[in-house]
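Subject: for your reference before the review

Hello V.,

The reviewers asked for a structural picture of the protein, and I figured it would be easier to keep everything in one thread rather than splitting it across files. Below is the amino acid sequence we used in the manuscript, unchanged from the supplementary table.
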Amino acid sequence: MTELVIPVILAIAGIHALLHQTDVMSALLKGVQTGLQTAIHILPTMIVLLTAVRMLRASGWIDLAGQMLEPLLQKTGIPAECSALVLLKPLSGSGGLALGQEIMRDCGVDSYAGRVAAVMLGASETSLYTIGIYCGHLELKKTGYAIPAAILADFAAFISAALWVRWLG
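And here is what came back from the structure prediction:
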């Protein structure tokens, strides 16, 4: 049944275009053009953010800061092995995945730390990266409550991940 979802959506879009006499090709080309303009506009922001994340990871700052947070995070149920993941995941999805892979390789996929890392990766977002991209694209200078709210939401996701893994464990 699920294999029919995409063909049905395409059929509905085609019928809608026919009923409203929409030139599908020109609409498609306009969408591609807008997408390319957006990609070109956010490219500098992406380059800066990705470079900064790579520098933080390569310098060892993420691991050091994670070690400093270990005592606080362990009180919330987050294992010490996942402390650097708490800092890296909001900044970089690929960096978070690489760190999660390291945790699972070193501790085992069925270990408490491995399971918590897996749930953390799925339960959280690269929120600071996303805010940076959006604000860069919209040329916003002030983020208001977006960054504190994103950090709070990610931290809630991380604590929830540890609690659920322990509870279902």
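For the response letter, the relevant points are probably these. Residues 45 and 136 are 6 Å apart (CA to CA). The two ends are 33 Å apart (CA to CA).

Happy to draft the paragraph if you're swamped.

O.
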